[in-house]
Amino acid sequence: MNEKILVVDDEIAIVDLIKMELEFEGYVVDTAYDGKAALEKVTSFHPDLVILDLMLPKINGYDVCKKIRETSMIPILMLTAKVDIIDKVLGLELGADDYLTKPFDNRELLARIKAHLRRSQQIIQNEETTKDLISNGPLSISAPERLVKLGDKEIHLTPKEFDLLFLMTTHVEQVFSREELLEKIWGYDYFGDTRTVDMHIQRIRRKIDNQPNKFIQTVFGIGYKMRKI
Fold it and tell me: What pTM value is reported for the model?
């Protein structure tokens, strides 16, 4: 069955161009031009991936992203004309998986879409074959529920934060380069930006570390590893 993609942007020309490219690639595409319509389409269309502009009328892209994440883990690829890193960080914090800054190359957009869809299926399969509960010291992860706890405290993570933490906790003491994490979690390398990995690691640390590098340790010049606690 062909994957379904929802394209959300208030610029009709951009939506039409993306829709044409995706349909040429064999995807089933639906569109929305404001945040309210986007949320309605998520419910009725059931997309496998959402391409979401941040600057939308009625309901902005940040709130749309947050609302989607209350009920679904589908990949969300943000589009933004802004270059301020704060806007990108906020989008990722609210649960978006990735971002592209306008103007963008259609080949890069297609590569990222394919990678996210592929990784989404692989991660689901990996979690289904993993034992129900894994732990490292006070940190515990339930794969079926996508639930993380630190002691008795539940830790709320975005989908990509969970995927990163899950990977590293199932490979304790293994050193991963930023490029490896980008490929394993986001599913692409050449098109990727390793700053995305750093931003996600920093946010995970803020949520689970009560002391510097307690769980995730920086391996200078290489990347990161999960320490055995």
Answer: 0.70
